[in-house]
Design a protein that fits this description.
The structure holds 2 protein chains of 2 kinds. By secondary structure, chain A is mostly helical. Chain A folds into 6 domains: about 40 residues, no CATH class; about 80 residues, no CATH class; about 100 residues; about 160 residues, Cytochrome Bc1 Complex, Chain D, domain 2, CATH 1.10.760; about 80 residues, Cytochrome Bc1 Complex, Chain D, domain 2; about 90 residues, Cytochrome c-like domain (Cytochrome Bc1 Complex, Chain D, domain 2). Chain A has 34 helices and 6 strands. A two-stranded antiparallel sheet of chain A has the order 1-2. A two-stranded antiparallel sheet of chain A has the order 3-4. In chain A, strands 5-6 form a two-stranded antiparallel ribbon. In chain A, helix 9 packs across helix 23 and helix 17 crosses helix 19. Chain B folds into 2 domains: about 110 residues, Sandwich (Immunoglobulin-like), CATH 2.60.40; about 100 residues, Cytochrome c-like domain (Cytochrome Bc1 Complex, Chain D, domain 2, Orthogonal Bundle). In chain B, strands 2, 4, 6, 8, 9 and 10 form a 6-stranded mixed β-sheet that branches. Chain B is elongated, with a radius of gyration of 22 Å. In chain B, about 35% of the residues are buried. At the A-B interface, helix 3, helix 7 and helix 23 of A face helix 1, helix 2 and helix 5 of B.
Chain lengths: ~675, ~240
């Protein structure tokens, strides 16, 4: 062995010439490694493949002319972007490559941004400076940033766009969920513009809970909120029977009677299901409240809580007091004060109390609590952070109860603890944590939410948008959110509008819900007499809608005060309602308007004007001449969106003559004519 | 020689990245074998690229008589990037397997294959198609929901009654590929912009040119192309297993 080595040594380095020669060869070979590595690089391979691919295409010459070989780079110092992705993704900007399915040659889909202005990693993450497939996409070299999976791509839009965008439904939904599902009650989310994300849900105060419900119901609810109502946003804290027993004991013991709530209730709940159902329907309770029907489908809105088993929950006295005036118990509730009379309260409460599931509370048997149990319950209530969401007498809302999520989208992977089998990437961690928080440690306080997979993805998308880049953006790139309006109407009428919870459905001056029409310019739009009558007895304007304006049993004085306020305050500067008369149009003009209505503009496709029309989309127009002002109709014909942004009616760019003729025709439709004719 | 080496390198890279993706849960042992596999629900849905389909895909395994077979193993496969939760499963007592599907990151059509083994261990397959909407189509979809759907979609929902039946001249549902695929992009844009009369069609289709911007009309067109059935040429390639 030794001899062999010696002879090899002799052969290679026996004399100086030999040694020089061998060393030179080795040196040359090692010198060749660097160019060879470059020569065999992946990007060169892909560029070669691209050239081969385009050679046989009809647009070969154009593509060939656009092609630039070598490592390509998009450098945007302002954004911290050094992206070499276009070295392999050669045809990103080639519109004619839309039919190519193989990567990396596909054209980038159409988006509103120019790739050269934003680079690639701004949206897709990944390692921009890397020049191999694995390093660029998978962050093999312990670099932090792997490519962002396509399903979370909208999170990148949210880095600059702080408000909702029409093209990012998932991001919008995720942001809504963050504030609606109560996440931000416990987790602080500071936004890059300096504001703090606010919760939009309204968890009820528990200070007077003993007035409202029983300890048995609280116990069952704490154990599994979704067993009572599948749509409930209250998460499941996975409490043991003992913990739920003690917490329910504390909440009952801690509750104080609501002042004024003790008034004796004179009416007994009436049990006439037919009358109850029809009052429930007439009051359009289903616009806000859902009930699960026999087929298992939810029917109704999600503004208020689900009522499928409300009879298991509420005490009859409480329910009657609530129906009489919900604002007495909860001043901030979204529920209108309906002004029901005693017999209506009895009918409706009887109908609601019958909505129960006989099995829900059958197995709940609780003995009278001991002081120790109550004390333990209090400790649990503060440990689980119940007061983060609910108002509870004697327990302060905890500060910084859960980790802040302001920059969660940039959290380094090294700081995360993954579950076995989980992909080591931030999006997977966030989604996993939302899906099953206690899987990460049984001792964690974060409760179990009931979310669909799509909702989990949306939430993850919204959280990923809260990252370092959203803070370090050049201010010129940030697209701020429209500041929320806190408009409140003033005076007596303003109080009445709050009492009737108009803002739960209608929007005025940027504040309020979107279930019903925006009323910002209502005073220019409608005629006074019509509005008074509508308040007294809201008729059907849009036959196809299931959500409608309920009747509030307003007194004449209330209806007239409210009308006066609306007519005076909610006027559009673009419409002078007295500038055009409500009658006196020539028959010729009316006739021309009718022809335009049925012919050129075919309005009957969406509106009902005559018994033979069936349009379901716009409001019925049979009485429009008694409802709207002529000036409003004229302006609406000219440009509907200028009066109500986002309305479905298309802007037809009508000539002044057409708009005037249609106004004449519409204002002639007073509705009463046919009945009067029949009387004669 | 040299390009071959580069190709080899590329293949190796591709191979390693693919092998990482195809790790799937171990399949359970089948106790039943069917003769055919049919769709119960869930094909031709659309969602955004990379996202989960709104409804799960449900397939059913039947025997020769067409009765449901319980305990048959069904495996779901598709182009890389498509994920199934779960990727395989045994049919329940009604012969059905349900899976949630997330589509790949590129807009277009994805072919999904559900396969089971018959008694002689031959593979029986069912191919379904799902649609992934890119940014532009998602934008178009929103516009469709706001402006078009109530007349162009004959189906009523609990929340919204369709206006389709009320119209004397019936609008074309956007899935009606046989008709819509014969209209060029320019004509489609012209009808949307100037209304039906622009192409000697009904005035019941109003002009949207003053309400929608040009990019919005383009987005709408790309949405209409994406959902048409049979597929439009402009809808792009179909992503299949290989």
């Amino acid at each position: 062995m030794n001899e062999k080595l010696t002879s090899l040594w002799q052969r290679l380095f026996g004399d100086s010439v030999r040694a020089f020669g061998v060393v030179s060869v080795v040196f040359l070979a090692s010198m060749a490694i660097a160019p060879a590595k470059n020569f065999f690089s992946e990007w060169r391979h892909y560029q070669h493949g691209y050239l081969t691919m385009i050679r046989n295409r009809s647009d070969a010459n154009t593509l060939q002319r656009h092609f630039q070989g070598g490592i390509r780079q998009i450098w945007l110092p302002q954004l911290g972007v050094v992206d070499r992705c276009t070295s392999c993704h050669v045809g990103l900007n080639e519109a004619s490559l839309a039919d190519v399915a193989t990567q990396p040659y596909r054209k980038h889909p159409s988006i509103p941004h120019n790739l050269d202005q934003f680079g690639c990693t701004t949206c897709h993450r990944g390692q921009g400076a890397a020049t191999t497939v694995a390093e660029a996409h998978n962050s093999t070299l312990a670099w932090e940033q792997p490519i962002l999976p396509a399903k979370y791509i909208e999170s990148s839009c949210g880095q600059c766009h702080r408000g909702p965008l029409p093209g990012t439904p998932q991001l919008n939904q995720g942001r809504n969920l963050l504030s609606r599902e109560g996440c931000v009650h416990c987790h602080t989310v500071k936004l890059p513009d300096g504001s703090t994300m606010k919760a939009t849900d309204d968890p009820p105060s528990l200070s007077h809970i003993a007035d409202k419900t029983t300890r048995e119901w609280i116990f069952a609810w704490l154990k599994d909120p979704q067993a009572y109502a599948s749509t409930s946003t209250m998460p499941n804290f996975k409490l043991s029977d003992y913990d739920a027993r003690d917490m329910s004991a504390f909440l009952m013991a801690n509750s104080t009677p609501m002042p004024g709530d003790t008034a004796p209730v004179s009416t007994k709940a009436a049990a006439d299901p037919a009358a109850g159902a029809s009052l429930y329907g007439e009051s359009f309770c289903a616009s806000c409240h859902a009930v699960q029907n026999a087929a298992g489908n939810m029917v109704g809105g999600n503004v208020g809580p689900e009522l499928t088993r409300v009879g298991n929950k509420v005490k009859p006295e409480w329910l009657q007091a609530w129906l009489r005036n919900p604002r007495a118990y909860d001043a901030g509730t979204a529920m209108p004060h309906y002004r029901f009379n005693d017999s209506q309260v009895a009918t409706l409460s009887g109908f609601l109390l019958a909505k129960k599931d006989s099995d829900l509370l059958t197995n709940v048997h609780l003995d009278a609590p001991t002081p120790e149990q109550i004390a333990h319950g209090k400790r649990l209530v503060s440990d689980y952070g119940c007061a983060s969401c609910h108002e509870i007498t004697g327990i302060k809302k905890p500060e910084n109860f859960a980790p802040e999520l302001s920059r969660i989208g940039s959290k380094p992977v090294t700081q995360l603890i993954f579950l076995p089998g989980m992909q080591h990437a931030l999006p997977d961690y966030i989604a996993g944590k939302i899906k099953n928080p206690r899987a990460f440690s049984p001792g964690l306080k974060m409760p179990q939410y009931t979310l669909t997979p799509l909702q989990t993805d949306s939430l993850t998308t919204a959280l990923l948008s809260l990252n370092d880049r959203s803070y370090s953006l050049p201010p010129s790139l940030a697209v701020p959110v429209q500041p929320a309006s806190d408009y409140q109407p003033a005076g007596k009428a303003g109080k009445l509008m709050t009492d009737l919870a108009c803002f739960s459905c209608h929007r005025l001056n940027g504040h309020g819900g979107d279930m019903a029409p925006d009323l910002t310019w209502e005073g220019s739009s409608v005629q006074r007499e019509w509005l008074v009558q509508f308040f007294k007895n809201p008729g059907t304007l849009r036959p196809a809608l299931i959500r409608r304006m309920p009747r509030f049993n307003l007194t004449d004085v209330e209806a007239s005060e409210l009308t006066d306020y609306i007519m005076t305050v909610y006027q559009s500067p673009a419409v002078d309602r007295d500038s055009m008369p409500l009658s006196g149009y020539s028959q010729g003009q009316i006739e021309l308007g009718k022809q335009l209505f049925y012919g050129k503009y075919s309005c009957q496709g969406c509106h009902i004007m005559d018994t033979t029309d069936k349009g379901y989309i716009g409001p019925t127009l049979t009485h429009v001449g008694s409802r709207l002002t002529a000036a409003w109709i004229y302006q609406w014909m000219k440009n509907p969106q200028s009066l109500r942004p986002g309305t479905v009616e298309p802007n037809r760019a009508m000539s002044d003559e057409d708009a005037r003729a249609l106004t004449a025709f519409l204002i002639s439709q007073k509705g009463g004519d046919k009945q009067e004719a029949a009387k004669k | 020689m040299i390009p071959r080496a580069a190709l080899l390198l590329g293949l190796v890279v591709l191979g390693t990245s693919c092998s990482r993706q195809t790790e799937s849960a171990a399949a359970p042992k089948p106790t039943g074998f069917g003769a055919a596999i049919v769709e119960s629900s869930g094909s031709k849905q659309f969602t955004q690229t990379g996202s989960i389909l709104p409804q799960p895909v449900v397939v059913q395994v039947n025997d020769h008589q067409g009765t449901a077979v319980a305990g048959a193993l069904v495996e779901f496969t598709a182009a890389p990037g498509v994920t199934f939760d779960p990727p395989n499963g045994l049919t329940d007592s009604s012969g059905q397997v349900t899976t949630n599907v997330s589509l790949g990151g590129m807009a277009g059509r994805y072919q999904i294959t559900a396969s089971t083994l018959d008694k002689s261990h031959k593979k029986v397959e069912l191919k379904l198609e799902e649609i992934a909407l890119g940014y532009q189509q998602t934008l178009g979809r929103r516009l469709n929901d706001q402006y078009c759907d109530r007349c162009h979609n004959p189906e009523s929902t609990v929340e919204r009654v369709s206006n389709y039946d009320n119209l004397d001249v019936k609008p074309h549902p956007f899935t009606e590929g046989d008709t819509l695929n014969r209209i060029s992009d320019a004509d489609l844009a012209a009808i949307i912009t100037h209304g039906g009369p622009a192409l000697q069609k009904s005035a019941l289709m109003p002009a949207w040119g003053n309400t929608l911007s040009k990019p919005e009309i383009e987005a709408l067109t790309s949405y209409i192309r994406a959902v048409s059935d049979p597929p439009s040429r402009a809808a792009g390639p179909v992503y299949t297993k290989n």
